[in-house]
Amino acid sequence: MSEVPDTAAEVTPAAEPKKRVSKKAAGPALSKIRRADPFLERELQKYEYPLPSREYILQTLTDRGVPMTGEDLADALDITLEESDVFARRLGAMERDGQMMRNRRGAYILPDKADLIRGRVEGHPDGFGFLKPEEGGDDLFLGPREMKAVLHGDRALVRVTGADWKGRREAKIVEVLERANERLVGRVVVEHGVHYVVAENRRINQEILLAREGRTKLPVAGQVVTVELVQQPTKNSQPIGKVVEVLGAYADPGMEIEIALRKHDLPFEFSKAAKAQTARIPDTVRESDLGGGREDLRALPLVTIDGETAKDFDDAVFAEPVGKGWRLVVAIADVSHYVTEGSALDKDAYERGNSVYFPRRVIPMLPEKLSNGLCSLNPNVDRLCMVCDMAISVTGKIQRYRFYPAVMHSKARLTYTKVAAALYDKDEATRAELAPLLPHLESLDAVFQILLKARARRGAIDFETTETRMVFNDQGKIEKIVPETRNDAHRLIEECMLAANVCASEYLEFNEQPALYRIHEGPKPEKLEKLRTFLGEFGFDLGGGDDPAASDFARLIDRIKTRPDRQLLQTVMLRSLRQAMYSPDNVGHFGLAYDAYTHFTSPIRRYPDLLVHRAIKAVIARQQPRKKSKAAEALAALDLDEVGAHCSATERRADEATRDVEAWLKCFFMQDRIGEQFEGSVSAAVPFGIFVALDDVFIEGLVHISDLGADYFHFDDARHELVGERTGQRFRLSDRVKVQLVRVDLESRKIDFRLVEATPSATARRGKTARDAARGDAREKPVVASLDDDEGEFVSWRELQGVKAGAQVPGAGAGRRKTAGPARERSGPPPAGAKKAGSKPAKKAGAAPRKATGGKPAPTGKKPAPKGGPRKKGGRRG
Hints:
Largest sheet: 5 strands, antiparallel
Distance between the termini: 59 Å
Strand order of the largest sheet: 5-4-3-6-7
Number of helices: 23
């Protein structure tokens, strides 16, 4: 690929921070038994008089092969009388962490020896749950009775008790090791004078009783509150909480964001120490900031190109012809100059992991003074930056590159729309406005065109997707949803950033500098097999054998781009891929077809990019004689595996929170359109129905399997379709349908449709073929898949959302079912009276018998619904 600069030097291992070691502790004061601890040296680094390590204690318990009391362990490990209290605390900590436990006689035992399994609890809205073992393996089913003692996210120790009706291992909770929920956000419900809170997180099924404190007035029904748990649940009692914050009414403007922040534990307030550090940072670049080999690029006509609403500008670009090739300069905000390792700002930035972009509100990774001010490459002001200066050949090959710190002065803040109008639409007014910068923009476009050709030769995957933008009214609610067109100006900046990121990864890898890479592995073998089976139905084959490359995907996408069913084929290909993540182990980026890739270009809003900047500076410092690198020492002390996992988790957390908010806003937008009919396409087929994406409003909802017609429908996982047993009618991705909106439920953020009309797809087949007949037995059984089947994968670049409902109209489908979005539903024991996918079909095609909402309700003899909302299935209220 590119040539590495001659100045690149071999890595000198960073010196370990010096630790004080007591000579007394290291001497003969410890007995022979204590000196036999295999982790003694590590413990000496931490403590002056170290206790036996946890590993040594477990080894002792294992070697004895029998339960041991605390006194037995103390005797076996030569614990002195003065150490006994501290040793007892260590044993208690190990017990809390599930490393060992006590039997009924008070003796310590090893969980593995007692056939006990540690893991994390995952709740389900229907009241049951699963335990994900920490050591890996299949999940264990936890019935509703077991789930009474725990909340979603708790760590527990369980014993396998047998198998449930589906053949899954079923478990009983032996001990709760760690409670994950200290605070919860939810809505207040009042029933018979009793106040309780229904958690916004639907995986928490228990109602939290509200404790009265003196004469304190409890919040009214329907208010959204934050509660602090003062008593965790047990098998015999509900959790109890006290209100610590009243957020307001459920439909107040901005409430959906306030709920999401607390539901997903997003940090949204900076610490006092971070605020104090920010206050000490100057408002402008000072002369003292320009030392240390920082180059002066203030005369270079660098510009930023971003969206119309952007306020934090990470990157600026410049290009010019040099000889037969091009020079491309990508300047990135030098955040690491202000956010130093271990500082209060650094700790807050790490905790957040990234900025979170909600509609109409941003939760920044850094305080606004930095994110929108001193670190943002605003026009006509001096700013510090880190530069990737590249020489690119006419074929798009990066021949040379150099990284260095600099000071710059952006000449303009441009938008994608304006640049596209000048370069590609040839708008005369815009070209006249940008006349001084136009030659440089045209140079950027020339570089973009050759990088685009290089991308095609490389075989990077390029899926076509439709992004949307919400337009809001003065009350903060959606007025309309419009498609967001991605023009060539977007792609221009994207290619420039990709080039800089690739250079950063190669630079760090060549210099053996530990750092975080952005990795994306190829599809799993089982997903690849399903994809090949599906493509074979259409006469296509994915090249590459058992190990296809990104270019094999790219060639197939090019072959199908003119087909009427291209959206179907592309979506299935997309879902076969895994999710990208951060890791110190470079395994390449499959989707972009790079051997090495990292994130360098957005340090204002992504913590991994900030770490990459520090790593690059560490390499630069090593190449300068007699210059000691504090950055290298700090990076060497980091556990990059843990940092990568944390940053990957915060990225997913941000995605989930923004999806939550967008789903609520879409439900609010649709709640006044009950009864209207819409045209759309099937966006997902799942065992319990089909999800439909509407054409004009870009919103998705569920048509339940009971509303598809008078037939038994079976889910074919390999073909991504539902097939009618009697009629042979198929519902698969991209099929055209007409639906009627029948329910919108703000609380659960779900939307329900009723099928009005279905148009067979261009590739649909009626009746059974010989292949169908051969597979009949396998296909005619309803498929219920685990949520874990798609865990860690791209579900979609534009995530498909599942929805449920509240209001209903005449002719709507029958009884309600709980759904979990387009990801396949994890199913537990069926509730009483629940309808299975293959149960008796409704008497009337397209609609099961339900009562309309019009007229007086039929007498039921039931108690009135509690204040704050109706009681839900499975004992849920609200």
